[in-house]
Amino acid sequence: MDDALKSEAAPGDSLAPLGATIAAALPGAVTRTYVEYGELNVVAESARILDVLTHLRSDPACQFICFIDITATDYPSRAKRFDVVYHLLSPRLNQRVRIKAAVGDGEAIASACSVFPAADWFERETYDMFGVLFTGHPDLRRILTDYGFEGYPLRKDFPMTGFVEVRYDDMEKRVVYEPVRLNQEFRQFDFLSPWEGAIPQALPGDEKAS
């Protein structure tokens, strides 16, 4: 097997053979497999992501039929800035797998909805938070941020100030734009135990302690 496709895992690890099998079945689509923190990781080419997901779902040796989620990680200094990360579960094998595919800023990756329909809202969230585009998605629009929101909040270069939030004002009967506020109720802590701080008077039975 090509060195680039060898599974990088501790000898005897139960997941290492599965990783090697997946890599061997998908030459050119899977570039690396390794085991970390007891979970199998598969590094895939973004252009072949549907081939990888379909194989993991349908191959009898895998049977990762349960879709868990999709997210992304941001590495601003890399040429391909984002890793799109997929998590799948195989109830038959009682194993999980993590798939990573590198995508550049402004590049697109194929939507997984044709393989796992449950990917719909997760891809919308990844687009909303990171700006990753998914081609072939049936309804790729923001899902968490306000109407007209600019930027992608989970990017590491997203500024913490200078943005506005949009809400409907029931008193004015219109949509209003306001500076983003991070409100938190001010509280004082006396660092006393509940028995000392909650009830100032002596509790019944305390006289016995004296």
Describe this structure in words.
By secondary structure, the chain is an alpha/beta fold. It has a single domain (3-154), classed as 2-Layer Sandwich (Beta Polymerase, domain 2). The chain is built from 5 helices and 10 strands, in the order βαββαββββαβββαα. The strands form 3 sheets. It has a 6-stranded mixed beta sheet with strand order 1-2-3-6-5-4. The chain is extended, with a radius of gyration of 25 Å. The chain starts with 6 loop residues before the first strand and ends with a helix.
Mean pLDDT: 85
CATH architecture: 2-Layer Sandwich
Helix percent reads 10-25%
Q: Provide the spatial order of strands within the biggest beta sheet.
A: 1-2-3-6-5-4
Poorly predicted regions are 6-12
Q: Name the structural class.
A: alpha/beta
Number of strands: 10
State the shape. Answer: extended
- How far apart are the termini? 79 Å
The ordered H/E elements are EHEEHEEEEHEEEHH
Number of helices, counting only DSSP H or I runs of 4 residues or more: 5
**The CATH topology:** Beta Polymerase, domain 2
Radius of gyration: 25 Å
CATH class identity:
Alpha Beta
Major pleated sheet: 6 strands, mixed
Q: Determine the strand fraction and express it as a percent band.
A: 25-35%
Number of self-contained structural domains:
1
CATH superfamily: NADH:ubiquinone oxidoreductase Nqo5 subunit
